[in-house]
Amino acid sequence: MATWLITGCSTGLGRALAEAALQRGNNVVVTARDAATVEDLAAPYPDAALALSLDVTDPDQLRSAIARGTEAFGGIDVLVNNAGYGYRAAVEEGDDGDVRTLFDTHFFGTVDAIKAVLPQMRSRRSGTIVNLSSIGARITPAGSGYYAAVKSAVEGLTGSLRKELEPLGITAMVVEPGGFRTDFSGRSLQQSPEAIDDYAETAGKRRKENDTSHGTQPGDPAKAAAAIITAVESDDTPEVLVLGADATSAHTDVLRAQLASLEEWREISESTGVDTQQSEETP
Questions:
Q1: What pLDDT band is residue 41 in, cutting at 50, 70 and 90?
Q2: Is 283 within the bounds of a domain?
Q3: What is the DSSP string of the chain?
Q4: Active site residues
Q5: Domain of 44: which CATH number?
Q6: Which residues form the domain of 40?
Q7: pTM listed for this prediction
Q8: Among 1, 28, 154, 248, which one is least packed by beta carbons within 10 Å?
C-alpha cells in the first residue's frame, strides 16, 4: 500500500486514477480546486481518502495539501501532477495573460509540487513523481503551440529530474496520453478570444467551434489509470509512458521523421567543428 497525492481529480484522467488507486487499496489525497467536486470519490473510503481543495498555482495550498496528506497517512509516496487544461490558439493569436496562466498551472504548479514533496522523499530514499504531458508535445499540432510548449517544458524538466533522483532511490516519469474520452476537448478546453483569418486553414480548424473530436476519442480513462499504476508499481518504471494506440503511432512517426532528417543533414551538421589541423598551425 502506498500514499498517492493526485492533482486535478474532479474529472477525466485524474478522477479515473484516484478511483483506481483507491480500489487497489492505496491511500489517496484527492485534490481539486473545489474539494466538493471530489468528496464523492473520498466518501466510500473514509480511512484511505482525503479530499482537499487545491489550486496548483497557489504554493501555500500545495505545501498545505502535502503536509495534511503526510499527517493523515505518514508520507506521500507517489505525487501525480495532473491538473491542467487545453489551450488552443495560433502563436500570434495567443493572449499574453492566458499563456502565462497556462504556464503557471502546468509548469510552475508542477515545479512547486515537486519541490514541496521532495524533502520527505529524499529523507526516505523512496518515492515516485508522475508528470502528465501529452502526445502534443511530440507532434506539435497547429493551434497547440503554447500547450505543446508547456508540456515540452514539463518533459525536459522531468528528464533531468529523473537523472538527479535515481541515485537517491526516487524515480520520475512522464505520461504522454493521446486522445481519451475526458473533458479535455470539451469543457476544459480554452482558446484565444479572437481568431485571425489567415490561420483559418491551420490553427482555425482546431478551434472549439470547428473541433468534432470531443466524445469520439479512442482512449478509455479507466484503462489509462490502470496502465499508470502498473508503471508506477513496476521495478522498471519507464521514463516516458505513452498511452493510446494513436499516441504510440504518432510518437513513432515523429521519431522516424526526426531520424531521417538527422541523417539527411548529418554531413552539414558535422561540418561545423573546428578544423584541428588549421588550428594547430595557427601561431
A1: very high
A2: no
A3: --EEEES--SSHHHHHHHHHHHHTT-EEEEEESSGGGTHHHHTT-TTTEEEEE--TT-HHHHHHHHHHHHHHHS--SEEEE----EEEB-GGG--HHHHHHHHIIIIIHHHHHHHHHHHHHHHHT-EEEEEE--THHHH--TTBHHHHHHHHHHHHHHHHHHHHHGGGTEEEEEEEE--BSSSTTTTTEEE-SS--GGGTTTGGGGSTTT---TTT-SB-HHHHHHHHHHHHHSTT--SEEEESHHHHHHHHHHHHHHHHHHHHTHHHHGGGS--HHHHHH--
A4: 133, 147, 151
A5: 3.40.50.720
A6: 3-271
A7: 0.93
A8: 1
